Amino acid sequence: MFKSKSPTRRTLWLIVIAGVVYSVAQRPERLTGLLSYIWSALRCVTAGLFLAFVLNLMLVPIESAVGKLFKKAKPGLKRGIGLAVTYLIALAMIALTAYSIIPSLRNAADTAISRLPEAFQMLPGVVTDILTKLGATADKIASINETLNNAATLVVEYISGSVTQIAGFAFNFTTGLVGGLLDVVLTIAISVYALAGKERVSRFVSELLTAYMPEKPRGFVFDLRTLVYEKFSEFFKGQVLEAIILGVMCFIGMLVFGFPNPAAISVVVGLCAIVPVIGPWVGSVSGILLTMVYNPSMALWFALYILVIQQVEDNVFYPRIVGKQMKVSGLLVLCAVVIGGEIHGMLGIILAVPLSAVVYELISQRVKRRLSAPKEEIEK
Q1: What is the pLDDT of residues 11-20, one digit of tens each?
Q2: In a domain? residue 315
Q3: Structural domain that includes position 354
Q4: CA–CA distance from 377 to each of 34, 364, 380 (Å)?
Q5: Cβ distance 271 to 243 under 8 Å?
Q6: What local confidence, expressed as pLDDT, does residue 84 receive?
Q7: How far apart are the first and last CA of the chain?
Q8: CA distance 371 to 212
Q9: CA 291 to chain CA mean position, Å
Q10: 282-321, pLDDT tens digit by residue?
């Protein structure tokens, strides 16, 4: 752009850019409003492309199996069969969740809402018995009980007030349902078209870069595209597989030891495990609270059990499933999770880990090339 031989054109570009920078500096809300509008306009497109990326991880092995079964079939027919099987599997997974797991979660939530006030009201008496056995003074016990009674009153009032808010939430959910369904349909349609013509899209992008970008930066962009795809694929496959293993381990153990409501609690633990670092702990705490609501006497045993299977998963399965592929240190993962959460909440946490792996790999490659280069070339 700035390499143009025309001084007039170069000057006009500089004036335009300076005007934009000055306008943003004077009114930063204009930029945020514009970005918000662009994000709103591209929301379905972004969601559709992301869904296509995730489903492509399933489509590749399915299409390979279809190719082995129907060797003489045309590529278009193989792609069509692969797409149909992929979306049917995804739909079956959603239906299984909706009809078998969500009712259990709903029952668990209903039980928790109904029993939590009683549990919190009983808490001061339990604490009093424990402190008495430990030899605490009467003044100390009274002070602690007063604090617990105040906290229990606040919790009961909050839960009671939350019930009245459910009607308003249901109304807002119903009014936005039509728009939400339309977004879902558009997202699925975009993902189907993206997967159906993924080679054509990739070829068009490659030709576009070849036509308008110099050779050296073009090679870097191609390498970056390959690296991003590899790291994101490895991360999502690893995290989902890890979450499934943790959820299954939790479910089997809960059945063996007779913990209450194993299906709902295991699903919560497994779904939370998809979020790196903090997800397993959030799932464990949620499972402990749900167990305490159903059977307080078993909550401690469940806490010990979930701690054991988390240690097994962290030290046996996670290094083999995710750790080796990502090739990043735990400190970098933790920093990425913290920064990603501050930038964009839960989505930022999930995307921060593969992005940090990409950045780490690029820096590592750069350092290795620089260390292996001749000294004269480095000094230049």
Answers
A1: 777 887 887 7
A2: yes
A3: 215-372
A4: 45, 19, 5
A5: yes
A6: 92
A7: 27
A8: 32
A9: 25
A10: 888 888 877 877 777 787 888 889 888 888 877 777 666 6
User: If you search the block for the tokens 């609501």, which residue do you land on?
Assistant: 293
Give the chain's domain count.
1
> How far apart are alpha carbons 53 and 237 in whole angstroms?
12
Q: Are 105 and 268 in contact (CB under 8 A)?
A: yes
Query: Among 344, 327, 292, 277, which residue's Cα sits nearest to residue 119?
Result: 292
The whole-model pTM stands at: 0.63
Structural domain contains residue 303: yes
Of residues 228, 253, 244, the one with CA closest to residue 353: 228
The residue behind tokens 């167990």 is 291
Q: Domain for residue 17, yes or no?
A: no
Confidence of residue 88 (pLDDT cuts 50, 70, 90): very high
Of 109, 293, 285, 79, which is closest to residue 199 (Cα–Cα)?
A: 79
Residue 318 CB coordination number (10 Å): 21
Rounded CA-CA distance 180/332 in Å is 37
4: left (phi over 0), alpha (psi -120 to 50) or beta: beta
- What phi-psi label fits residue 259: left (phi over 0), alpha (psi between -120 and 50 degrees) or beta? beta
